[in-house]
Amino acid sequence: MSSFWKQPENRPYLIFVGVWVLLWCDWSAWYLLPSWFHVIGFTVATALGWGWYLRRRKQNRRKVDQRWSLAPVFVLSWQWLVFAASEMGWSGAARFFTLLGMSILFFAGLCVTVWWVEKQSREYAVAASGGGRGSGERVWNLCNLEAWYLRKRSQKLDQSLWTFLLYTLLFFLLVLILSHLPGCREIYEMPAGGGEQAQLQKVKIQKVIKKKLVINPFSSIVFNPPPIEDIKLQFQELTKHAYQVGFGEGKGSGFAGGTQRGKVRFIRLEYQGGDWDQDFSGSSDLNMLLEYGIRTGHKVAEQPESRRISQLKNFPIGKSPPFLYVTGQRNLEVSNSEVEVLREYLTDKHGMLFADNGGSAGWGQQFFAVMQKVLPQVKPIKVPLDHPIHTTPYPIPFLPYVAPHGGKDAWGWVVDGRLVAYYHPGDIGDAWADDHAKVRREIWEYCYQLGTNVIFYSHVEYNRWLDSLNQNQKADGNE
Amino acid sequence: MGTNSFRRKWIDGKWGSLVCAGILFAAFGVDAANRLSPLEQIPIESFREMREVERYQLKVAEKHYLEGEYKIALDEYEKFLSLYESSSAAAYSQLMWSHCLLRLRKVNTAIREGFQSVIDYWPDSQEAKTASYLIARSYQDMGEVEKARVAFQKMIESVDDVELQVRARNQILEMAKTKQDWDEVLRILGELTFDTERIKGVEEICRAASRDLGSRLLRRGDWDGGIEALETSYEGGGLDEKLFEYGRSAVGHLRSQDETRAAGDQMLAKLLARFEATIPDDLTEEGNQSRARTALNRIAELHGAAGRKTDVLATYERIEKMLGVSDGLLGQIASFYRGIGEREKARATYRRYENQVAAKSAIAGMYREESKFDEAIELYRELIEEDPDRVNDYLWVIGDCFERKGAWKEAIQTYRQIDKFPDNYLRMARCHRRLKQWDEALSLYSQSKSSEPHAPGATLSIGYTYEEAGQRENAIKAFQLTCRSYPKSSEASRAHAHLQSKYQITATFGGGKDE
């Protein structure tokens, strides 16, 4: 490597690769640079890669060299596609590109390996026919057909099998490393900003009442009161929406623990056995997400998303979704391994489940049973109406519902003073849909307000936890 | 007698408390006295000192409270506080105001502005003690377990009220159980069982604690500890009964694991010896036969819990020899055979019954369990001849047998003979649906709607029938009708969900309201 570095013409390539790797590490693990920097960085790198390839193609007529030059360009392009899909919020496309790239890489690598082993093998054969054979030592090299573990009758077949096996093993190890590429590993970031966790105040206009002047007509002092018609009513804003909805100190509405590229996302949880996707193709999730953005001023994602329970493992601690929405009306099946993932998500990753009974008492009972498995040491409680989740930012006077499928009370599971699961018994998601389940305007407005409160509560609690993590890290650093 | 002398004699005198209790009883009625929990009742001393106008205001507030009109009650208690700030019942009124907030599910406000105010303004009152307990319990109800535990502990140390202390310990016990902190559970159970004075109001809590502790110790194989705990609440026959109940479960539990099997066998031996000793020698004396039967039945059941089949049968034979055969004993033997899967032997035992009607009924029931419907039907038909008073019951099970074997027409014919409207109509409609005879099914469901409790189910079934018949529009109308006519029923919820998932139609219930 040092000799490679010493050659001046190679240095730009090494610097380019080093910068690209740093950029990739930041995007997938460090999260230090803003999103626009990654966009520019990856796009420029890919463009430079293609430019280099086209120039090299013109300069070099050898087919083999041209093919070799394609390899780095492929990696750059593949990574750019995965990155672009992730940035657009197309998680499905990101997964697809990741898998597609892996497959192409596997087969291309296999072809190259076979070609190289064959080439080496021929060279050994030529050398052997020239009298270089019979040193008496055990041959280990796979490229040499004289290797001791290749059977005499089927040397070629054994060589191919060993090549395939070893290559697959190496590739498997490579995949383990690559599995940390975004697309396999995900992050959730809150929008940066600040604000107060306080109730929204209503703007009240108060009429200023002029003080009455009682004038003594016999007074020796001359008064000149204006005629009554000339007195103008003055209005004054008693209160105004003078604060931002958010948490912590920062510019604009958002969360102090957020990032510039962060957005509030609405993620629905996929589960086996039932209808997790009830009305998922409809408008309810999207409407709620947009309403949340309008009401709080926080940056929100363009579209709602969904994730399987097992995919929650892909979110690192400190970069996982503060809440997940789960609904349905049929069966709710959760395996033992998924129970573990949910427990880790709710406790170690400080997440929250927002469960909505979509249409049957049975679904509610199953959700309670799942929670009993996930948090066996936590008893569900009826969430009081003056709990912060019911009062901030919107004070909710009563629990709004579309239909009381699972009773008329909201239930919660509390861990260390924090609600880790909030269960709504009456199809709140239906009220978020375009037709608002035909309930009264007052009800669906309260349903939006409650949805906003739940999302906001989860993010505030998440931010608090991030703050305490940072403080602990600082304290550890000082020690 | 003047007013003052009446007051001296009946209100301030030694009968004062009794009279006041009587007034309370008359004023609030039996229902009110039954429904107000001990933590919601006014101390008798405070009530005695109240003026008539104050009592009237309190009565109005409590009337609304007991009727579940908590918002009105809240206002009435607040009114009481504004009007009679210096009344002896002011603290109580503030306490009840907080109770109203609890009922309105505003727990934080109840703690902050209700219970805490009672403690701040009337720190020496009984209500302040109750308020400090209720603050801790409210934390528990909100899931703030650690806060609640600290508050309960503080309350136990600072409040000199045995009843509230016991209640607080009981709540800490509940939290320890949820947390699965078994050492803490045993410690608190020990305190409640052995160290607590069993005054009125806490007796049942202590008794329950002793039962719980006894059961847990027996399941750990601690025979002496278990008996010691149970002896604090029970003696004689009562103790034997509890020992049998918890001992049987402990034997099964201990013997289920290899490492505790020996302890289980020891426990079994001690229990057997104890119950063996209670069998009287002279069976001619009055009551001795019953005592012997109880003891031997317990011995048989203990053998059963230990999985010793031959010992169980030997014990039953012993009962037969000592006390003679009876249908009750034969029933027990047959149940034992059924439990171990020897069904022919069970049937043979039932056949030995003196009461052949009961025997045939039991055997027919077994055939139904085994899905041998023809044999069951034959026996039930014989029973109709022999026991005509219960013909409706026998026809019902015959109909059920036909239905379960898929003989829909025979089932309909049988159900038609039964006088059990609308249950038989609903069953007949179900059979007609199986036969795809939609009109008949719809007609029967429509007639069943005249029974109010069955109307939501019948309307929903009409919807499903139309759906099966391919009449989509009518099905939707029926489901919508279920939602509209019976919005509070579970059937409405099902209809709502079905309309949404199958037809993508939203039927509204009007949504929630401030209740």
Give the second-level CATH assignment, the architecture of the largest domain in chain A: 3-Layer(aba) Sandwich
Distance between the termini of chain B: 51 Å
CATH fold label of the largest domain in chain A: Rossmann fold
Terminal CA distance of chain A reads 40 Å
What is the succession of H and E elements of chain A?
HHHHHHEEEHEEHEHEHEEHH
Number of domains of chain A: 2
Low-confidence stretches of chain A: 235-242
Going by helix content, strand content and strand pairing, the class of chain B is: mainly alpha
Q: How many distinct helices of chain B? A: 28
Helix content of chain B: over 70%
Overall pLDDT level of chain B: 90
The overall average pLDDT of chain A, rounded, is 84
Entry summary:
Chain A has 479 residues and is α/β, with parallel strands linked by helices.
Task: Report on this structure.
The complex is a heterodimer of chains A (479) and B (515). Chain A is of the alpha/beta class and 479 residues long. Chain A folds into 2 domains: 2-178; 267-478, 3-Layer(aba) Sandwich (Rossmann fold). Helices cover 48% and strands 8% of the residues of chain A. Chain A contains 12 helices and 9 strands. Chain A has helices at residues 2-6, 11-30, 35-59, 63-87, 91-132, 155-178, 284-296, 336-348, 361-374, 388-391, 428-432, 441-478, and strands spanning 205-207, 235-237, 267-270, 305-308, 324-328, 353-357, 381-382, 411-415, 418-424. The radius of gyration of chain A is 32 Å and the shape is elongated. Chain B is 75% helix and 0% strand. Chain B has helices at residues 3-11, 16-35, 44-49, 52-66, 70-83, 90-103, 107-121, 126-141, 145-158, 162-179, 182-194, 203-219, 223-231, 236-255, 261-277, 288-305, 309-323, 327-339, 343-351, 356-369, 373-386, 391-404, 408-416, 423-434, 438-448, 455-468, 472-485, 490-503. Chain B folds into 3 domains: 36-178, Alpha Horseshoe (Serine Threonine Protein Phosphatase 5, Tetratricopeptide repeat); 181-323, no CATH class; 424-515, Serine Threonine Protein Phosphatase 5, Tetratricopeptide repeat (Alpha Horseshoe). By secondary structure, chain B is mostly helical. In chain B, helix 7 runs antiparallel to helix 8 (126-141), helix 9 (145-158) packs antiparallel against helix 10 (162-179) and helix 27 runs antiparallel to helix 28 (490-503). The longest helix of chain B is centred in the first third of the chain and has 20 residues, at 16-35. Chain B is built from 28 helices and no strands. Classes of the chains: A alpha/beta (479), B mainly alpha (515). Chain A binds chain B through residues 275, 278-279, 329, 358-361, 376-379, 381-382, 384-387, 397-405, 408-409, 412-414, 416-417, 419, 426, 430-431, 433, 435, 437-440, 443-444, and chain B through 104-109, 141-147, 178-180, 483, 487-488, 490, 492-494, 496-497, 500-501, 506-515.
